Amino acid sequence: MFQLLFSISTLSAMIRLSAPIALAAVGSAYGHKAKIFNIGLESYVLTSAFFATWGSYLFENAMMGLVFGVVSGVVMSAVFGTFVLHFKSDPIVIGIAMNLSAWGFTTLLMYNIFHTRGSVMDSRIKSFSTISIPLLDRIPFIGSILNNQNALVYLAFLVVVIAQIVMYKTPFGLRIRGVGSNEEAMQSAGVSVLKYKWASLIVTGVLAGAAGTCLPLCGISMFTENMSAGKGFLAVSAARIGKGDPLKSFLACLIFAFADALSVGLQGFSIPSQLVLTAPYIITVLVMCLTNLGELRKESV
Amino acid sequence: MEDIILEVKHICKYFGNLTANDDVSLRIRQGTVHSIIGENGAGKSTLMNIISGIYKPNSGEIYVKGNHVVFRNPNDATKCGIGMVHQEFMLFPELTVLENLMMGFETKKFGGFLNKKQAARDIQDIAEKYGFSIPLDKKVSELPVSLLQQVEIVKILYKGAEIIILDEPTSVLTPQGIEGLFQAIRYLTKQGKTVILITHKLKEVMEISDYITVLKNGVVTGNLKPEETDEHGLANLMVGRQVLFNTKKQEKEIAARDIQDIAEKYGFSIPLDKKVSELPVSLLQQVEIVKILYKGAEIIILDEPTSVLTPQGIEGLFQAIRYLTKQGKTVILITHKLKEVMEISDYITVLKNGVVTGNLKPEETDEHGLANLMVGRQVLFNTKKQEKEIAEPILEVKDLTALGSDGIEKVKHVSLSVRKGEILGIAGVAGSGQGELIEAIFGLRNPENGTIIYKGEDITMASPRKKREKKIGYVPQDRISTGCNVHADLIENCIMGYHVAHKFKTPWLINKEEASAFTHSVVENYQVKVQDIHNKIGELSGGNIQKTIVGREFSQNNDLLIIEDPTRGIDVGAIEFIWQKIIDVAQKGVSVLLVSHELGEVMELSDRILVMYNGEIAADLENTPELDEKTIGLYMLGGKS
């Protein structure tokens, strides 16, 4: 069993499974820094997973799937933003409403467009292909974990790096962090708070859309009902654990993805499968507790 | 004559029915310190927000260096060289100082990346030029308040400000910090910058200003230089207690002669040609007396004449009163200062609840006797400085140690005791552990070590609710975030903390009638200016919020009151009022533990003063008249041990 923990197949699966959570988590990190609590992320991921499938189906092209996915993510963000920023609705209420309706909405669309229930499988749905990076395969162990992953997985890594740079090295990132820190000071600095809150929402939408695209178009080329299955929630948790830092959030994602990968491997053992499947969520709670231990000690009252 | 760098003409600003600024005109000269003073709600902040582009005026014009400008947002004002340091700092606690300074004015490189090195160099140059030294790489949340202020000033200098508006800058500073700030202000003006200072601390105004503008109820009531007036004159302009003295022009000369005659006859000497606003308070009173003599009065009624006077002024007034009576005039004096009554009166009538309770001569009674007649029962007559040794301690803190929020020991083995009816003041530089000490005593922070004994009972670990039930009241330092719920109405705020401990409760629900009756009594007794008790407390001015909180805690028959900075950032009138209330409750036997960062406040009110330095009690001093600020200041800075 211990061998399974760090076997190449588990670690490779971890990298593969981390991609959608990482993309959504980095998006959520931007929202977190701008102090927008976006629990609706789950609905972004699910909706864009469906539209990515549809886009890929319509054009028989994975790239068009990504475009559809990203656009639907941005539209979801626009809905959320309109309610929260302009109608001053409670973000939690809106987020929960969006999460609950997204399941019904995608299932309805699936029935109306594909005339199936449960899942959609069609040869016209094209996935992104895996990429072999030259030289990487020569490195033992690491090479076999990192190489030959799906294109979207590498995209996710790239996004993490770029997001980190944008967050800390550009005026845009500085202003996003400023909005979350002190809105009044932001106004007095002559920067529009609303504009940057919207900007952070758009970033969240784009990245959550890409995350949704990962689910159907990372090889399996199919959409199933409630396909996101809590990936959006995990991403929100990761962003909060990382306190909005893209890199730290990504590290949290790796932990979740590892638990996820492990649960796949552990199904071969005589452990109840339900218990195994809860592993990522139990680990979420544990990680949350551990990262907050330091602060709990500080605020002991 | 210096150039006029900023001029506002006929500014009017309304918020609904409220007139915040009414036809305000102002000229600011380059390279000067121009103070804008006035009570809370006088319209100072509104005016400054208009000048810095946050509000748009309903009418009126702004000229910068002679050019007419219209500000659509703060950026426009910044471009014209106007920068404002707000009372609440406009900083981002999670970001570094450098990032704070760059926000909104980012220096870029490679077409889109932050050029932190360049910005740091530029900022360091500016800071050096104007004599500031700030650490750029530290997070703002790690810096002390005085440094934050420097950061704010450097920030607006970095944005190219020529005119620097400081909104109540001294309210958060220690005496040393204030001195440093003033030096910086002087240095800035020497370099040609212009500083507009908003404050209501008259002493500071007199010390630092070149020009002073006084606002009252949205109207400019005075434009003067410090050498033309004194603190009393300014106070009068701000509060507007004196009556304006006007005679018709054509009769002026004859009147002047008559008045001069009268004044001479009764031994007054008043300058007839000066504006009333330029006169000190004691002279204004003479003006008032001469005024009624001029109108042919035989009986002169003086209503609380001494409340606005200095001791010298009072002596002068009494001489005048003696002289008047010698000349056959009759004087009726209304006062509650018994000492003065005993000194000046021929006859005394005591009123209580609208009924005459005594008619006597001063030689038939003494101050205690009068006090009894006034209050109607035998009371312990305590003046502030009187010894109260007999009283037993009500609160005893032994060897208390507590950690700050950062895990560092902030209170180190502190022992103290508060006796019944005593006002125990705690002085100290901000951050010396006073805040943590109070939180530990009230139960907002768990002590690491030590015991707290209240009325002989160990309450070290008791929760704030338990402590409220045991009649301990608490007026927190931060009235907005700790003292009240700004989104709740006055009723809810008035019963807050007592909704369980004391009545206000039917078995399950809040007793609305009881609660609003109590709120009405607080509003009335504590002169809270509010239209309707269902209004949100956040809509009130700082002084009124503070009065409400003080009223809430003082009206609950508490035996011990823990009070932190009760008068921070509120106007003169409210300060006086709250001080009086504190003295009053102590007279009634309530013990008060007073922590204040205003040394003057501690010295004014306390019977005994503890000085905290670095988490320890550095001194335990009886508040005798000989005790001076310097001695305490030395203890506050750890100079003696």
Structure commentary:
The complex is a heterodimer of chains A (301) and B (641). By secondary structure, chain A is mainly alpha-helical. Chain A is 73% helix and 3% strand. Chain A contains 14 helices and four strands. In chain A, helix 2 packs across helix 11, helix 3 crosses helix 11 and helix 7 crosses helix 8. The model of chain A has no long low-confidence stretch (mean pLDDT 88). Chain B has 641 residues and is an alpha/beta fold. Chain B folds into three domains: 236 residues, Rossmann fold, CATH 3.40.50.300; 124 residues, Rossmann fold; 159 residues, 3-Layer(aba) Sandwich (Rossmann fold). Classes of the chains: A mainly alpha (301), B alpha/beta (641). Chains A and B meet through helix 8 and helix 9 of A and helix 2 and strand 8 of B.
Q: Any key phrases for this structure?
A:
heterodimer; A: 301 residues; mainly alpha; two-stranded antiparallel sheet; two-stranded antiparallel ribbon; 14 helices; B: 641 residues; alpha/beta; Rossmann fold; 3 domains; 6-stranded mixed β-sheet; 22 helices; 26 strands; 35% helix; 24% strand; globular
Mean pLDDT of chain B: 81
Number of strands of chain A: 4
Strand content of chain B: 15-25%
* Poorly predicted residue ranges of chain B: 241-251, 376-388
* Separation, N- and C-terminal Cα atoms of chain A: 43 Å
The number of helical elements of chain A comes to: 14
Secondary-structure blueprint of this entry?
The complex is a heterodimer of chains A (301) and B (641).
Chain A lengths: L1 H4 L2 H26 L7 H19 L2 H25 L4 H24 L4 E3 L8 E2 L10 H5 L2 E2 H19 L1 H11 L1 H6 L4 H25 L4 E3 L6 H11 L4 H21 L6 H5 L1 H20 L3
Antiparallel strand pairs in A: 1-4, 2-3
Chain B lengths: L3 E12 L2 E12 L3 E5 L6 H8 L7 E6 L2 E3 L4 H6 L2 E4 L11 H6 L5 E2 L3 E2 L1 H14 L15 H14 L4 E5 L7 H16 L3 E6 L2 H7 L2 E6 L2 E6 L6 H9 L12 H14 L15 H14 L4 E5 L7 H16 L3 E5 L3 H7 L3 E5 L2 E6 L6 H9 L17 E11 L5 E11 L3 E5 L6 H9 L6 E6 L2 E2 L5 H6 L2 E4 L3 H5 L6 H6 L16 H14 L16 H13 L5 E5 L7 H16 L3 E5 L3 H7 L2 E6 L2 E7 L6 H8 L5
Parallel strand pairs in B: 3-10, 3-11, 6-9, 9-10, 13-14, 19-24, 19-25, 22-23, 23-24
Antiparallel strand pairs in B: 1-2, 1-4, 4-5, 7-8, 11-12, 15-16, 17-18, 17-20, 20-21, 25-26
Helix pairs in contact in B: 4-5, 9-10, 10-11, 18-19, 19-20
